[in-house]
Amino acid sequence: MRLRSPAVACLVAGLVTAIAVAPSVAAGDYATDVDGVINVQASTTPIVQACPANAPWLRDPNVCASRWSTFANDKSESDLAVDPTDPAHIVGMSKAFFSPKDYLFELVWYDSTDGGQTWQSGILPGYEEWMDTTDPVVAFDALGNLYALVLPFNFVIEPSGDHNWDVGHVNPKGLNDAIYLSRSMKADGAVGRDWEAPVLLATYHASGLGITADKQWVGADIFGKHPGSVYASWIVFDGVALNTVVSVSTDFGAHFTSPRVISSATKPKFNGDPYVFEGPEGNVYVAYDTLPPKQSYTTGGFQVVVSHDNGQTWSKPGQQVTTSVGPTPYLPDTFRDGTPYSMTVNPANGNLLLAYENYDRSIPKGDIWLTQSTDEGKTWAKPVQVNDPAAAGDTFQQKVFAAPNGEFAVAFYDRRLACPTNDPIAGNIGRINTCIDVTVQAYASDATQLGGNRRATLETWDPNVVPPQQGGLSGTGTFIGDYFGGAMTSGDAGTFVHLLFVSTSPDYQAGAVAGGGFAPPYQQQIYAQVPVP
Shortest CA distance to 318 belongs to which of 366, 283, 282, 369? Predict the structure, then answer.
């Protein structure tokens, strides 16, 4: 059954204020060397949803009376993929918040068929009985079909506004959360806009033991080695351990194998944040981290397992790449630090690429490092620093991706520039190590740097502008997303980085309206295109 998303409209009416192209300037200065960089506000379509006043999880009438925005305001945390059959077709996904103070949101898709110049978007359909849908991730297969692995979940908002995770009495009955696959197939219509009914992979009920799922990821047969295969991985907390599980479909996501545990860890360090993807030789990889609680100032690590038979059996984990774990949040900001690493495969040579955060306590400062494996993750090369060592400010939330020609890049959030003069928070204007840009470092296939750190944002933005509150009214932490999206293309016109990230810049607020006790500017989703030198 094909489902239509609500609130679909074209971006064209807002193009004048939603797109920016950098002028040509002399190279060398990070702040101004943005020649050829394009930024487009992707989140201009009105995303509309009425407050569900009669929902079984909603017991605080003030949510609908004063804190709900019928037109979603904040839009953060995103993923992005480029159609391998049409490089002008780009799809993204993010959260869209209807009540940022209550941490209420839905997943929203973004679709461009003209190389990112214009965008349409809408709520991902099929999850109306759930409270929230979270952790956006999208992946194409080699045929141009699109897959999104979705984590819907429930909690109760009590009359006090507090969150209650004892959810045995809300619908779907007794469930904390579940894992579903949403599919947008070429045979059904417009890929990225028309979605089939979700396919259920697993459901979870705490039953007083805290059994729950989180941090799902999806991959697909992008290289044509296993036609019809879709790969899903997520973590399951069973009350004692965090388990990394994997499930495989060989019929384009219609059916999946039972989730299989491939790694497990207990206190003081836990598994988390899996990535699953296919290699050009047909290998299937699952990567995961093993981390202590945040702010523990100790070490963590990253590993990968490989399957040579399309997910039927898995190797033992290879060498663990260790890192120094830093604080969260990075003060003076209040948002939580997100996924501490990113992994992918180079399609030209099959090398695994790992970019990760490493906290330098001697400064102190958050840095980004890069390493490669040429033997399926058994061993890793000596890591190199990605961000400019001499640049001030923390760097975090890295994303690594590679182009078909073998060139690759790492993008990351960067706090080196002072807050801009148009910062909506007047007291932050000129403040250092507070506001955020996105930086890209490109590499040749042999890992030689292609130029230096390049700024991908045309407007520095302040993460403290009306951010969502983790934990609801009683929460003290804020949210900008745990990661952002990126991909890379190569062809006759050159090699390009494609990004989808959050920004609160007043210059990217097309279509934003007041609601829920807030007024623009909000967190918006920005598409960026960056040429590789």
Answer: 283
